[in-house]
Queue: 2 jobs
Job 1
Amino acid sequence: MRNAQLTIDPAFTIGAADRRLFGSFVEHMGRCVYGGIHEPGHPAADARGFRRDVLELTRELGVSVVRYPGGNFVSGYRWEDGVGPVGDRPRRLDLAWKTIETNAFGLGEFMAWATAAGVEPMMAVNLGTRGVQEACDLLEYANHPGGTRLSDLRREHGAEEPYGVRLWCLGNELDGPWQVGHKTADEYGRLAAETARAMKLIDPSISLVACGSSNRGMPTFASWEATVLTHTYEHVDYISAHTYYDPSDGDRASLLASAVDMDNFIREVVATADHVAAKLRQRRKLKISFDEWNVWYQSRLQADLDRRGWVEAPALIEDDFTAVDAVVVGDLLITLLRHADRVGVACQAQLANVIAPIRTRTGGPAWRQSIFHPFALTARYARGTVLRTEPVSPTYPTRKYGDVPVLDTVAVRDEETGELSVFAVNRGSADLPLDLDLRGLPGLRAREHHTLAAGADPAATNTEAEPERVTPRRLPTPTLDGGRCSVALPACSWNLLRFSTHDSASAPRGGTPDRMKGAQP
Ligand code: AHR
């Protein structure tokens, strides 16, 4: 195989690597909340029932923003059920996941958890079974300082200061026939526009996300976005996108090229939004909130739901992610960064247990799944300005996407620290020699090469018994000679190459995680 080539020039920039690209998602689904982030009585739980081990892993993951409380769940949710004294809260049927919702965890608990985790909250309002009034009520309760019935109720419930939630989703996946309160694009567009207008009267500082399609394969994809944005463009700040890649069919070559699909998806949503802007003579460019994305063995879900009756917090879609899945997740993050000019928020779905980087056993330990690692390292080191890269790469054939490049890359330069981080995925089944040309960044030295390689054991997973089986390892640091170097990217691998202008690699802002300090060069 001939060498792949990558030239990096700081003159060609895409945009700032927004911290909000490293978001996650906590839905009342399965054991994400109950038994995941919240488990009173667990040896690691604090006085509020928050699992400290999960809080620590959330911080290590580098999550910036967390979307809550759904997901499909929000489309039948009454937010009032989750505030006030816990003992007075009703038990309800959650139609989305055929589950009994106890409401032991609600808005106040989520806000306290978000503060403890150091993340920004992103709330969703119910536009499935509810409408403008209930969304306004929730916003008044959350963000209005006081002196009104709902803001004073929040204060009675112990939160003197307003929560000041800045990011709000106008419902969830209302294009999907599975959604409680499913709507046509016109029905949803009108409702979203009116809800947005009213919410911004209460708090003009908020940013709003209109629902885009549930995935690129929806029969209404693109026309849904066009119609919804025609109604909402002037009132909203983002259009959402969701995507999950399912490895169940065993087509590994296509799975490894999932980022090609995500890349096309983003381009198409941007084109549709820009078309509507042109039609409406709007000069403001809309951004995408990619607020659900991940690998998900989706074919298992229906069986899970069919098998049982109404129960509390059942284990649901607790996928064990493989080393290959981790490479795919790393590549999806590369794609999100490459579109940093138009993707302003992104949330990996979900945070704990439910297709999640963090797994727990109820009453037992918490551990990092394989997909935890590329997320944590990208969130840690993708700081500064995203640079445009145009890799020259061999291609390989895939059933789903035709011939695709073996190599995918993005580079992020931190002007403050002088560091350059290059993220690279080798989708191929052989090692890939890569020639790097960094002559546009004089004075750089190579510092580290981390890799998460799936070639030797693609199906390896991390389990409670073996939680460290899939982890990144350090490869020998390459030597830059006159601004050039060659590195070998292992077969089927995600890679982080770090360069800096100073002698010792500075700890990233936020510090170096202890677990990486002992890594062997
Ligand atoms: O993340 C799991 C589910 O996937 C969410 O509830 C829904 O929005 C999506 O279809």
Job 2
Amino acid sequence: MPTAILSALPEEQHGLREQLEEAMHVRHAGRDFHTGRWHGKPVVLALSRIGKVAAATTATALIERFGVRRIVFTGVAGGLHPDVRVGDTVIGTAFLQHDMDASPLFPRHEVPLYGRSRFAADEELVDLLAMAAGAVSTGVFDAATRARFSLGGMRIHKGLLVSGDRFVSAAHEALTLQRDLPEALAVDMEGAAVAQVCHDYAIPFAAVRNISDRADDTAHVDFPAYLSQVAGKQARALIGALLPLLD
Ligand code: ADE
């Protein structure tokens, strides 16, 4: 049974597809899936596209059509917690939809009829991602790239990742999220949706996100360049280090 590696955008997947041996392309549900082997391990690469619904559809297709045994999401996120800087890696241990609000019928952030607002990552996958991230956190980027994108210590964090159907690109919005969800390390647009699907199917899930911006007024400025020059390379190094650790 293959491992699914899910990315949101083509730039984030770019470095991954080059690694596939015995590569095959399958078009399904309006999406492109790339199957093959990497480090001898069967994998399926897919683009979630952007937003929670698109990501949930992709995750469902990976499980139903490709029978994947686990899903790993790799991509970028906007840093929320004051300790999380551009270039850092965040490994999600729990996932929450910051824009879920069925109050007063249900508490804010609770997913109706699930009795919970958070979906946990698979603990073993989190540990393996942390090992993989530790192995690659230095040395992937040259000095010029580090300077251009102000990549700092490229630290690794583990904790709460929040998702919503909004690219957060205003400081006041980021501050509101920090105030409402002080534990949240970073924000993306897909992770919590995939976590919910994996919960429904009892499939192990984990997500690792490279911090591309601080979800503030400058979040969009270097975003495309960051994707093409940093995120794809980081994802390739990290997943390349993860796969040999998987059974
Ligand atoms: N992914 C990367 N940066 C993001 C941001 N600022 N908001 C939502 N998703 C993101």
